[in-house]
Specification:
About 45% of the residues lie in helices and about 20% in strands. It has about 200 residues and is of the alpha/beta class. An eight-stranded parallel β-barrel has the order 1-2-3-4-5-6-7-8, surrounded by six helices.
């Protein structure tokens, strides 16, 4: 069984990777949106170099071809991206795969891709983007954990540190966070609080 660190920040730039990984982050997602291809490649390459230096795992959101080209270790795909991605090429390149799920139909599609972890969300309402799904709540975590077997389960959506701890206690292996880190006045100190608390729970 693959084990992933329970603290999983999702960040919008390689600059954020450079702030959080040297502080002790071991598993981090780079989610780049609406950028030219050369800028996407530059940031993925830069983030990968930082992670490699500090023995951390970089997860590239969506951009699976760039992840292959830059010899990254992980890619994360949403449901729409799953439809378009060349899954055999991703596997041939040796990338590990994470998938997003929000309901049973999406879980079925996600599991068909043989992912290395499954993300469930939003657990709580999130202000970061408009979601067509109702909050899943803690109860769904236990159900999902049973359905996905021995794969790690990532909880995401509206998480504070207190809520993240509740997710781990409900059966999640990992808590993914955006706003509570990137919008914090001292994101590095906040990240360290998350690391300490979640690793003590795991």
């Amino acid at each position: 069984m693959i084990r992933i660190d329970p603290f999983y920040p999702v960040v919008p730039s390689a600059e954020w990777v450079a702030r959080l990984v040297p502080a002790g982050t071991r598993f981090i997602q780079l989610r780049l949106k609406d950028k030219p291809q050369d800028e996407l490649r530059r940031q993925v390459r830069e983030a990968r170099a930082i992670c490699q230096k500090h023995d951390a795992a970089l997860v590239v959101n969506d951009h699976w071809q760039i992840a292959i080209d830059e010899k990254c270790a992980w890619v994360h795909l949403g449901q729409e991206d799953l439809l378009d991605a060349d899954l055999p090429a991703i596997r041939r390149a040796g990338l590990r795969l994470g998938v997003s799920t929000h309901d049973h139909a999406e879980l079925e599609k996600g599991l068909a891709a043989q992912p290395d972890y499954v993300a469930l969300g939003p657990i709580w309402p999130t202000a970061l983007k408009k979601m067509p799904w109702a909050p899943q709540g803690l109860e769904r975590i236990g159900e999902w954990k049973t359905l996905i077997g021995d794969r790690p389960l990532v909880a995401i959506g509206g998480l504070t540190l207190e809520r993240a701890i509740q997710c781990l206690r409900a059966g999640a292996d990992c808590a993914a966070v955006v706003g509570d880190i990137v919008n914090n006045r001292d994101p590095v100190a906040q990240a360290r609080r998350w690391m300490d608390e979640l690793r003590a729970c795991a």
